[in-house]
Design a protein that fits this description.
Blueprint: H1 3-7, E1 19-23, E2 26-30, H2 33-56, H3 65-68, E3 76-79, H4 85-95, E4 111-114, E5 120-123, H5 126-138, H6 154-162, H7 177-188, H8 192-202
Antiparallel strand pairs: 1-2, 1-3, 4-5
């Protein structure tokens, strides 16, 4: 679903839908867990009623025991975002007087951004502001990745890691050496299945992957 269409679904209480459910009559949206459960129960009851109507249209001597058994169809739904996810994004925006409604706002000036040197840029939507900040942040930056510090040139190693003025030293302690050894063996060993299971379980929790 395009983000603009998603924002347009905000209800009168300012809530955005948590779930999209694909029912026979079309897409329905639930704005909370309770509403999702209620819609699911309502859909199951509708299926049960249609099942009874279908049985009523069939001659009694042709109805088998299997046909009498009601089996609800699987409900297809999408969780549009995790609980609390939207709030985590919206709260920092509100500190700057911004709101999701500005994302594709067609009228009015949202921000005048003054770049170093005095050049001013005027933006009318939050989307334009985000694109500008991303592009501006990339200016003069070249991202390189290394498997180890030994692959860097001496000046790069000094600038990024060894300079006492800029570097940060963090003491690493191992409160449980046995658990640490087990983790290291699992992640670096030759036994693939447990490593794959660990990655699949924790992949979405990774932060600062390039640090």
């Amino acid at each position: 679903m395009p983000f603009r269409e998603f924002l347009a679904l905000k209800n009168e209480n300012g809530l955005l839908p948590r779930f999209q459910m694909n029912l026979m009559e079309g897409a329905r949206f639930a704005y909370s867990e309770d509403e999702f459960v209620a819609l699911r129960q309502s859909e199951e009851e509708s299926q049960r009623q249609r099942h009874q109507e279908t049985l009523a249209s069939i001659p009694a001597d042709e109805i088998t025991s299997e046909m009498r058994t009601f089996k609800p169809s699987r409900l297809h739904f999408i969780e549009l975002y995790e609980e609390g996810g939207i709030e985590e994004i919206q709260e920092p925006l509100q500190e700057y007087g911004l709101d999701f409604s500005y994302y594709m706002c067609a009228n009015g000036v949202i921000l005048d951004i003054v770049e170093e040197g005095g050049k001013t840029y005027t933006y009318y939507t939050l989307r334009e502001v985000i694109d500008f900040l991303r592009n501006n942040g990339r200016k003069g930056i070249e991202i390189q990745r290394y498997k180890g510090l030994g692959e860097m040139n001496a000046d790069q190693l000094w600038e990024t890691t060894m300079d006492p003025v800029k570097r940060t030293l963090i003491k690493v302690t191992l409160p449980d050496v046995i658990a640490a050894d087990h983790m290291f063996t699992m992640l670096m060993g030759e036994d693939v299945p447990p490593r794959r299971a660990f990655i699949e379980q924790h992949a979405l929790s990774v932060k600062n992957l390039d640090v």
